[in-house]
# Entry
Amino acid sequence: MAGNGLISVESRFRVGETIDRLVETVTSAGLRVFARIDHAAGAREIGAPLRPTELLIFGHPKGGTPLMQDHQLAGIDLPIKALAWEDEQGKVWLSYNDARWLAERHSLGDTSRDAVAAIAAGLKKVVATAAGVNQS
# Structure
């Protein structure tokens, strides 16, 4: 599933476990977790229904700084975010912004090309691991 710069990978695990696995994977890779947001819990606070939905915000200055040096407004999309969510059929997905889409959105050039490629490859790897799927 892809569109509008989003990449979605079906997870073999429930939403909370998917995010737990993502936390473990990114921290093992030396990245920082900045926040974990449970949107469904927020909805419950106001008495509104929402299927399980959790957001993880993570990254490392080594990855994001070159993008912001190229075009500082890229910082609006950093650190990286991944959303685990359950669809109407009960399938769980782990979705994130395609790094190449971010590069296009912010008109990033040659100075950040290697960083964008590294972010794209790293995201594909950590998301596949967290979702329990083979990389293709």
